[in-house]
Structure formats: structure tokens, C-alpha cells
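Input.
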Amino acid sequence: MEVINALGRRKSAVARVYLSAGKGNITINGTPIDEYFKEETLKYIVNQPLNLTGTVANFDIKANIDGGGVKGQAEALRLAISRALCKVDEEAYRPVLKSNGFLTRDAREVERKKPGRPGARKRFQFSKR
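Output.
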């Protein structure tokens, strides 16, 4: 099996994934997943597509993640892994991943701050006199 690459984005985080046949090792920016993501919930988010398709021990994953916070990075990585699995076997994995919403890019971004205001939508306190 050749190396399959895919891209995932969430907020300002970008994850590039390289999927190859292996024993289930996940390496992020050159470090193991246990060192990169300390929280169990973030590791769970990353492993969701693998657990759902039953391919935890079938593939080795190397990922480069840039930008964003830890939660955005984990969700970007989940999308990238889901897209890579679809490239491996479209008929087997796509219906399961799509029904769980792992192939949909969450497009919500932070709204920019407007001039003359303290935030994106907030206004300074109104004073009549």
C-alpha cells in the first residue's frame, strides 16, 4: 500500500496526514500522540474515525499540524484521518464516517473585531446624556 495523504482544517488549524499500512502508531509533528495531546478527550477525538471503522491497528499515521489551539488541531486531525480513510476504501468507510459527521468541515471561524467597537459585535455602553 502506498502512502495516502489528506488535509483537514478547523478554525485556524491545518492538519496534513500521511496514512500508510502499519501497526497503529500515530505521530504528530515528530512526537507520539500521547505526548502531543495530554488530555484523553483530545486523543479520543483523534481516534474516533479509526475506532468507528475498526482500523485502529491497521494504519500508521504521520501528521503535520500547524496553527490554532489544541481542540481545533484535534478536530482538524480527525477530519484529515477521515478523508484519508475514504481514499483507502470508499465503499466500506465513507457511509459510516459520513453518517457520524466526520467528513463535514466545520466552517465556523472567529468573527473579526470591527473598528470603533470593543469586539466583533459588542458595543460600548450607551449614554443618553
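The first helix runs from residue 33 to 36.
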